[in-house]
Amino acid sequence: MNIKPYLEKDPVIRSYQAYLKLERSLSGNTVEAYLEDLSKLLDYFGEIGVNYPNTSLEQLQKFLVELYELGIGSRSQARIISGIKSFYKFLLLEEILKEDPTELLESPKIGQKLPEVLSLDEINAILSSIDLSTPQGHRNKAMLEVLYSCGLRVSELVNLLISNIYLKDEYLSVTGKGNKQRLVPISPAAIREINFWMRDRNKVDIKKGNEDFLFLNKGGTKLSRIMVFNIIKKQAEIAGIEKNISPHTFRHSFATHLLEGGANLRAIQEMLGHESILTTEIYTHMDMNLLRSEIIRFHPRNQRK
């Protein structure tokens, strides 16, 4: 997700950039943030075949539904909406539009109860607090790396099969809701932790019927959802994280960090396995090379040193 192509081909966007710098006297970082948020909307409009001067309140609301379905926090939503309103105010000033379609567009209430999102520092603190000298240490670290790096649901995590992991190609095949499968790129950090865990896993007395499950308890059967919840709660407490978090918190953090880093909205939607009634026909046919490039470029766990 990048504003540069729009700046190069659209004089209105270039004029808006100048307006933010000169008339509103915004800092360079603030201008860049406004333009990046605008690019998210322009990308969305491009995919549904809409030009920004001809948009409607309904189409803008559908865009907000997309953000909500991705689990994007209310503060991030409010910031994006503020940027959109600023752009349409500019279009009014330039007499490109006669009416403002954002006039009735409401920002989410900052105080309302929404899922927590962990910062990258908080995720690193949780991962660093894991005791790797214990028999389950490498399992827990691999489990949390996979949750965060791939944005999985807890049910997808506990049912993850070794036969569906392609470490050389850096992909997982995930079975989501409705038994629908999708391919999700996996980060080098998660691959490293899986390899560490596999050494310990080979020492477990695996019960019949559980041979292919990646994550096992000490009794040799697959982990339960409740056990994953308990592991995360305990680890967050050890790390001094006071937020009320769950496995789904890692999934929300995955989506939020990718979006705020500039990843394509449709790519995030595909990787999460969402079936938006508004865009299913568009995003289910995306090229896997694009999905891979998006997560490799924008997910913090893929930034190789």
What would you say this structure looks like, in words?
This protein is mostly helical and 305 residues long. The chain has two domains: 4-93, Tyrosine recombinase, N-terminal domain (DNA polymerase, domain 1, Orthogonal Bundle); 120-302, hpI Integrase, Chain A, CATH 1.10.443. 55% of the residues lie in helices and 4% in strands. The protein has a three-stranded antiparallel sheet. A hairpin with a 4-residue loop joins β1 and β2. α7 runs antiparallel to α9 (188-201) and α11 packs antiparallel against α12 (265-272). The model is unreliable at 276-288 (pLDDT under 50).
* CATH hierarchy: architecture of the largest domain: Orthogonal Bundle
Average pLDDT across residues?
Answer: 83
Largest sheet: 3 strands, antiparallel
Separation of the first and last Cα atoms: 23 Å
User: How many strand elements?
Assistant: 3
Task: Please identify which CATH superfamily of the largest domain we are dealing with.
Answer: Intergrase catalytic core
Structural class by sheet pairing and helices: mainly alpha
